[in-house]
């Protein structure tokens, strides 16, 4: 029995035996005899026992055995995704349609509807793998990418999680900044949001789910109040026409896809303690509805809110001064001090809505860190979440005044690498692992996992193609430029990356399996 299996055995014993919780330094010989383990391993095991006594989850990327599963319902995946997206970051993203791409109401509406209908699929499908396999998302990728190439993907996604934590923290802080009428420094507002999220995210899986069961409903009520007060100010701005309109629709659509599919890289993480017997279609349906409804409704509110700038000097001035937070505050003006104070109360609640998203980023980045190196697995996830979350807060403080630009650049970049990655994951699952035919005991054994040559090659080709088709303020790919609308071109990155990876991966993987048997 190797070291990781001994660790899982020790965890399992401590989980079920109260007397072992204070010791937590046992192993098992090949004959089944329980013996003390080495002092170095014991140090980490004792630390994980302390983490458990604090009420936090001490498990990391190890597979969760059936004996540790609970009666957790797939409904928790609806509340998880609804809470993570019913927040000010989602509303701020919705403002990008009119603000950056010059879209009106109906073209923005169609983008938000159709691209969210499409973008919700990957994360919902990935969610079904958590209960079935008991493995985290970036561990499951080893069954396509292999043991070593998977480390590169884990590192990239670690940066992805830090970036998302940064974006979501700034979005929440914008509301606190507006409530303080600019007297509360933006850096302090970022720290308040970030530190609260850090504490919840560090404690792990069970506390995350408990928080998400409540958060979405409270925030939904607040957003309904904002929509109610703001309805009379929302104009129907007609859509433009011509090449600029086509480019704007495709670019906004790329952002929406990036916003949605980013959840797929961590989706399985939040179902690993659910019973394996749950029907995959239920897991998929609850996840899909939580993802789609939350982003569709809140992004539309962001679109409507941003359009107020086009026909109101007061809203334009509020936006220039304090961004999306200023726009929301302006909705409650003109009714007297009582309504204005009520509006500040609603904004105060909404400022903490992004915590539901940040805690998932912080929790999963700790798991990503353990994927990068075997040595890092020994360090408890809680500590990696602490370090990564701290880094995200520092980055958020540095970028606190540039939310819109950060969202535009970051969200599109996410779609560039994630689209070929997820395409490979799902082709592997549908074509080569039908019926969830994964040997889950092989998750940590390089000799029993694929070499990953087909996956990393196709992923690299798809990503490079996406870069050649991208259209950003800092880079316009030659293919995007050729499509039209100079000098910005038209972003068709994720579409071509999806098509190329779909064509290349099946034959490449078939050949790899034929030659290696893995």
UniProtKB/TrEMBL annotation:
Pfam families documented for this protein: Transp_cyt_pur (PF02133)
GO biological process, one term: nucleobase transport
A Gene Ontology molecular function term of the record: transmembrane transporter activity
Mode of membrane association: Multi-pass membrane protein
Highest taxon of the lineage: Eukaryota
Membrane-spanning parts: 78-106, 112-131, 152-176, 188-207, 214-234, 246-273, 285-307, 345-367, 379-398, 410-432, 453-475
Gene3D superfamilies the UniProt entry points to: Hydantoin permease (1.10.4160.10)
Keywords in alphabetical order: Membrane, Phosphoprotein, Transmembrane, Transmembrane helix, Transport
Compartment(s) of residence: Membrane
Family to which the UniProt record says this protein belongs: Belongs to the purine-cytosine permease (2.A.39) family.
Full protein name: Purine-cytosine permease fcyB
Organism listed in the record: Friedmanniomyces endolithicus
Lineage: Eukaryota, Fungi, Dikarya, Ascomycota, Pezizomycotina
């Amino acid at each position: 029995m190797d070291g990781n299996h001994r660790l899982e055995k020790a965890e399992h014993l401590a989980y079920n035996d109260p007397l072992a919780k204070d010791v937590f330094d046992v192993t098992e010989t090949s004959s089944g005899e329980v013996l003390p383990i080495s002092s170095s391993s014991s140090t980490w095991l004792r630390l994980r026992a302390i983490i458990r006594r604090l009420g936090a989850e001490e498990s990391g990327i190890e597979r969760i055995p059936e004996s540790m599963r609970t009666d957790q319902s797939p409904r928790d995946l609806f509340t998880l995704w609804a809470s993570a997206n019913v927040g000010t970051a989602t509303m701020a993203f919705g403002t990008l349609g009119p603000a950056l791409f010059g879209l009106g109401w109906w073209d923005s509406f169609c983008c938000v509807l159709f691209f969210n209908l499409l973008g919700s699929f990957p994360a919902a499908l990935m969610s079904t793998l958590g209960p079935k396999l008991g493995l985290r998302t970036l561990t499951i990728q080893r069954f396509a990418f292999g043991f070593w190439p998977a480390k590169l993907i884990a590192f990239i996604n670690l940066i992805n999680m830090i970036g998302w934590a940064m974006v979501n923290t700034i979005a929440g802080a914008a509301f606190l900044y507006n409530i303080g009428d600019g007297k509360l420094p933006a850096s302090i507002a970022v720290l308040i949001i970030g530190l609260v999220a850090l504490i919840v995210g560090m404690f792990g899986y069970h506390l995350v789910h408990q928080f998400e069961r409540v958060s979405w409903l409270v925030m939904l009520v607040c957003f309904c109040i904002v929509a109610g007060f703001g309805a009379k100010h929302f104009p129907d701005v007609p859509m433009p026409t011509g090449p600029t309109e086509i480019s704007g629709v495709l670019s906004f659509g790329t952002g929406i896809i990036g916003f949605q599919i980013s959840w797929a890289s961590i989706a399985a993480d939040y179902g690993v303690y659910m019973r394996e017997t749950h029907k995959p279609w239920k897991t998929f349906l609850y996840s899909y509805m939580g993802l789609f409804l939350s982003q569709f409704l809140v992004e539309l509110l962001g679109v409507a809110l941003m359009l107020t700038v086009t026909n109101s000097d007061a809203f334009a001035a509020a936006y220039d001064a304090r961004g999306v937070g200023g726009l929301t505050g302006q909705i409650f003006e003109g009714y007297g001090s009582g309504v204005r104070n009520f509006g500040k109360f609603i904004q105060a609640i909404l400022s903490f809505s992004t915590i539901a998203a940040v805690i998932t980023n912080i929790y999963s980045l700790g798991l990503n860190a353990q994927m990068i190196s075997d040595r890092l697995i020994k360090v408890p996830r809680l500590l990696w979440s602490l370090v990564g979350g701290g880094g995200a807060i520092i980055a958020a403080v540095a970028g606190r005044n540039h939310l819109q630009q950060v969202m535009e650049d970051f969200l599109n970049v996410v779609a560039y690498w994630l689209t070929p990655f997820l395409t490979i994951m799902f082709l592997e699952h549908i074509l080569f692992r039908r019926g969830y035919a994964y040997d889950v005991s092989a998750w940590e054994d390089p000799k029993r996992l694929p070499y990953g040559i087909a996956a990393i090659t196709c992923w690299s080709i798809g990503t490079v193609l996406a870069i050649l088709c991208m259209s950003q303020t800092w880079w316009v790919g030659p293919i995007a430029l050729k499509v039209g609308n100079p000098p910005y071109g038209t972003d068709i990155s994720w579409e071509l990356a999806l098509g190329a990876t779909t064509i290349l991966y099946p034959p490449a993987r078939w050949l790899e399996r034929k030659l290696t048997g893995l």
